[in-house]
Write a structure and sequence with these properties.
Elements: H1 3-7, E1 11-15, H2 27-39, E2 44-48, H3 50-59, E3 64-67, H4 83-92, E4 96-100, H5 110-119, E5 123-127, H6 131-140, E6 144-146, H7 163-170, E7 176-179, H8 185-193, E8 198-201, H9 203-206, H10 208-226, E9 230-235, E10 239-246, E11 249-257, H11 264-275, E12 284-289, E13 292-294, E14 297-299, H12 314-322, E15 326-330, H13 331-342, E16 350-355, E17 359-365, E18 368-369, E19 381-384, E20 387-390, H14 392-395, H15 397-406, H16 413-421, H17 425-449, E21 453-457, H18 458-461, H19 466-474, E22 485-487, H20 494-504
Parallel strand pairs: 1-2, 1-8, 2-3, 3-4, 4-5, 5-6, 6-7, 7-8, 9-12, 12-15, 16-21, 21-22
Antiparallel strand pairs: 9-10, 10-11, 13-14, 16-17, 17-18, 19-20
Helix pairs in contact: 2-3, 4-5, 11-12, 13-20, 15-17, 16-17, 17-19
């Protein structure tokens, strides 16, 4: 490998090409961009035009990829189309001369350009659009292959880098420079991981006009979407709630019992039916569901709460029904975010635990929602009678109702609480068993996260007397270990309010 290539191996090459005829399209401005790039970690430059190249060459000895762009009437080839261009670039000080090596109508064959570059004692860089062009260029003896032209030889321009082409070209055995639509650091890092010799970044660094457009367009889209309420839904084991939400205000709602004997497709149909009256009146969609959410797919943590097939494509299924992309979160995490932003947390770090049909939880620490596996609470193991069981099988609303049935009282959970309030010993014993487990959970979560406040919600968590039971069981703890327990302020709306806010933040 030549010394020139070695100097920017596995490094950043900055393309200093201002917008033609823009306010920065002057050699002195290009020199400024080039020197700033090199001072900030760039190891090489890509410079267009003889005047710009001469000015930059006089200012630095860094490796320079030189090129000339022309708009021809008889050919789509723009990058260094003529042999005279090769000679001029070599004389101006380019170390590497780049030329369009795509298989299109051209004024000069690729082979002739490659020979001319080598005759000038420079390295030849073939800008290609597909792997066949890369193979042909390597066969002609080019020194470097660039993915520069991928996506620019016809059809709509892609939005992402062509990493598949990069990986295929690397296997040809020549140094490959990744170039084209690399706009964020993570994309540049991925290119290096795929074997790129260097990564060219241009517009994202040296074209303020483009960068400004990206930000302005994103802000405009967010403003337009934020002008409308957000559609949010909370799909749980007992009910499905759909709402129009504006900030912390729930404008309208629709609710239906969740039929557990049905499946995800039917539950999606229910959400779409409940949302149908508001079609066209919302700008984003957020969802909260029980279980694990990852990459828009949904899996049950505890099938006893709601049976869900593994990796059900919930986001796509709902997007096709609602006509909008859908941002999904675990229901307890969405509720935690709602309480943090607009409820009992009041912007302070918190752990939220919902005790309802199941048990779930979420944590906001350092102002960030911690995205774990389906919340932080419901499926934490607890040894009971020598066998580990998920917490929600030992303390949830379902546990309370099932335990009452075993004791000969076929009533629902609210009826158990009503009986306990009237002094029924059997009911108080069942509620106490639930409170024992949840109190231990809260104490452990306090040790793990040390939040400013512990927020308890859900139908069981907010039931009369339940929080007092929790506080009584934690009263013996020293002040620095005792959770400050607050009742959830948003009630059953916490999930949809949190899901809506999280969806708006993705715009």
């Amino acid at each position: 490998m030549s010394d020139c290539l070695q100097r920017f191996a596995s490094s950043l090459v900055v393309s200093c090409q201002p917008v033609p005829e823009g306010p920065l399209d002057h050699p002195e401005q290009v020199v400024g961009f080039a020197l700033a790039a090199l001072a900030s970690g760039g190891r090489g430059l890509r410079i267009e035009g003889i005047a710009n190249l001469k000015a930059v060459r006089a200012a630095t000895d860094a490796p320079i990829i030189g090129l000339i762009k022309r708009d021809l009437d008889t050919s789509p080839i723009r990058i260094t189309p003529f042999l005279d261009d090769v000679a001029a670039l070599a004389e101006a000080g380019a170390d590497i001369i780049a030329f369009d090596a795509t298989d299109r109508v051209r004024p000069v064959p690729v082979a002739d350009l490659c020979k001319a570059v080598h005759a000038c004692g420079k390295l030849a860089m073939a800008d290609i659009s597909n792997i066949e062009e890369a193979k042909a260029a390597v066969a002609l003896g080019v020194d470097v292959v660039g993915t520069t032209m991928s996506g620019y030889t016809g059809g709509p321009e892609p939005s992402d880098p062509d990493f598949a082409l990069l990986a295929a070209a690397v296997r040809l055995g020549r140094p490959v420079i990744a170039e084209g639509r690399i706009r964020v650091p993570e994309q540049a890092a991925e290119a290096i991981r795929l074997g790129a010799h260097g990564v060219v970044v241009g517009s994202a660094i040296t074209r303020p006009e483009h960068i400004t457009h990206w930000f302005a367009d994103a802000i405009g889209a967010a403003r337009a979407a934020s002008a409308k309420p957000t559609l949010a839904f909370d799909l749980g084991g007992t009910k499905t709630l759909v709402a129009l939400v504006d900030g912390d205000r729930v404008l309208e709602t629709g609710e239906r019992s969740t039929s557990r004997e049905l499946g995800p497709d039917d539950w999606c149909d229910t959400i779409a039916e409940l949302a149908a009256p508001w079609r066209g009146h919302y700008g984003a969609v957020g969802g909260a569901v029980t279980g694990v959410v990852h990459g828009g797919r949904w899996t049950a943590l505890n099938p006893g709460t709601l049976p869900v097939s593994s990796n059900y494509p919930l986001a796509d299924a709902l997007a096709s029904r609602l006509g909008h992309p859908v941002v999904l979160h675990n229901d307890a995490q969405a509720a935690a975010w709602g309480e943090y932003r607009f409820g009992a947390g009041a912007g302070r770090d918190l752990v939220f635990v919902t005790v309802s049909t199941g048990i779930g939880g979420g944590a906001i620490i350092g102002g960030r929602l911690l995205i774990g596996r389906g919340g932080v609470a419901g499926s934490v193991g607890l040894t009971q009678g020598g066998a580990p069981s998920p917490l929600e099988t030992l303390a949830s609303g379902r546990f309370i109702a099932e335990t009452a049935a075993v004791a000969g009282h076929s009533v629902d959970t609210p009826a158990v609480f009503a009986a306990a309030a009237h002094g029924e010993v059997w009911a108080s014993a069942i509620v106490d068993r639930s409170a024992d487990v949840v109190a231990r959970l809260l104490a452990d979560l306090q040790l793990l996260f040390d939040p400013a406040v512990m927020v308890v919600g859900g139908g069981v968590g907010l039931a009369d007397g339940y929080r007092a039971r929790l506080e009584a069981r934690l009263a013996h703890l020293p002040p620095h270990l005792k959770p400050e327990i607050r009742a959830a302020a948003l009630g059953k709306s916490a999930g949809v309010i949190g899901a809506a806010d999280l969806a708006r933040r993705t715009l």
